[in-house]
Specification:
This protein is α/β, with parallel strands linked by helices and about 220 residues long. The protein has two domains: about 140 residues, Rossmann fold; about 60 residues, Putative phosphatase, domain 2 (DNA polymerase, domain 1). Helices cover about 45% and strands about 15% of the residues. Strand 4, helix 5 and strand 5 form a beta-alpha-beta unit. Helix 6 crosses helix 7. The radius of gyration is 17 Å and the shape is globular.
Length: about 220
């Protein structure tokens, strides 16, 4: 079903790394600065994956001005400490090594700002596996996954018909489908199986070995 695949796009949060600790701590820091109390911290998992500013607005009904302030406070913590409160999912290093050794071109397509994404991947010594690491801009533009994938396709001459997007949330599946790209949903991130199934990825996998088996025979 994958057909001829040359390029593999990976989401970052919830797909390559588990960023929960750093993201939640950064959110709580921002909320404290804004004087907002969060009583259901477990529900902040919903912030992992979608555009962050949108999540602040949706959950706390913030004005544009307060949403911008929340992002500023969030980054005060995240840029110094939060981005390193992070861990790799089991098998990620082995997966990336195998895929590159087998001739695939790898990209990161994430809603996280590009500058932070590069820092995180360098921290884990993963940056060298990727041809390009593409995320959002710090001015909160290019946060939509459809736009991010489209940018990769047009800027780096990546044919969608020979490419696949791997991610854990509906935004990854929607963004890829909007660009006529095949999709793989992973169940070990922050999107539920029900969420993934409702958006009908081409494949659903449970771990990195299952991802590898789709590309390396």
């Amino acid at each position: 079903m994958l057909g001829k695949t040359e390029n593999i796009l990976f989401d970052l949060d919830g797909t390559l790394t588990d960023p929960k600790e750093g993201i939640v701590n950064s959110i709580l820091y921002a909320l404290d600065k804004l004087g907002i109390r969060e009583n259901n911290i477990a529900e902040l998992d919903s912030f992992i994956g979608p555009p962050l500013r949108d999540s602040f607005v949706k959950r706390y009904n913030l004005t544009d001005e307060l949403a911008d302030q929340a992002m500023t406070y969030y980054r005060e913590y995240f840029s110094v400490k939060g981005l390193f409160e992070n861990k790799l999912y089991p098998g990620v290093v082995e997966l990336l090594h195998s895929l590159t050794c087998n001739g695939y071109q790898l990209y990161v397509a994430t809603s996280k700002p590009t500058v932070y994404s590069i820092q995180i991947l360098k921290h884990f010594s993963l940056d060298s596996y990727f041809r390009e690491i593409i995320g959002s801009n710090l001015d909160n533009t290019r946060t939509d996954k459809t736009e991010i994938i489209s940018h990769i396709i047009s800027t780096y001459h990546v044919p969608a018909s020979h490419s696949v997007m791997i991610g854990d949330r509906q935004h990854d599946i929607i963004g890829a489908k909007n660009n006529s790209m095949k999709t793989i949903g992973v169940t070990f991130g922050y999107g539920s199986v029900e969420e993934l199934l409702s958006f009908q990825p081409d494949f659903i996998v449970n771990n990195c070995k299952e991802i590898e088996s789709l590309f390396v025979k």
